[in-house]
Here is the input.
Amino acid sequence: MALAAALAASLAACDDAGDAAQPTAEHTVDPATGETRMTIHGKDGPATLHAGPAVPVSLPPGFTLPPGARVTSNALAARPGGQGVLLSFETDAPAPEVIAHTRREAEAAGFRIEIDLDTAEARTIAGVRAKDRATVSLTVTQGTPATAQLALSAGGG
Here is the structure.
C-alpha cells in the first residue's frame, strides 16, 4: 500500500497545490476489500489513485501479464498528462522467462532497456521511451513462485 501512495504522490508532484476553494484530497477505503481510492486536487486537475488486489488490470497497449501470472496487488494512478500502473504478481515461470516476456513487449513499444541486472535474488530491467519519457521497470525474484513488480508510467512531470 505504501508503494501505491508513493505512486499517487509522484503523479501529483508535477502539479501545484490545489485551489483553496477545493478540498485538497479525498480518500476512501472499502472495509470489505481494502480497495483504496484517492483523489488529490491541483490547479491542473485531479490526480487519482485506485489500488487493491481486485482492481482490474489495465496495462498500456502492447503490454500483457506473463501466462499464468496471479495478480497480488494493483495500483492505477492518473493525472492530466500522465498515468501509471504499479502491479505486483506471482508466477511459477522462471525469472528469465518473465523478464524476456516484458522485454519483448517493451522493446516492441519503443522502450530502450537501460538497466539489466541479474543477482542471486532477483532480475531487474528498466527502460525509457524517448518520444514521451514513458518508463518501464520489472523486478522478478528468483524462486518458485517468483514474485514480480511491474511499473509503467507515461507522461512527464
Remarks:
- The beta strands are 25-29, 36-42, 45-51, 70-79, 82-91, 112-118, 122-129, 134-141, 146-154.
- DSSP finds two helices and nine strands in the chain.
- Residues 16 and 97 are 42 Å apart (CA to CA).
- Helices lie at 2-12, 95-108.
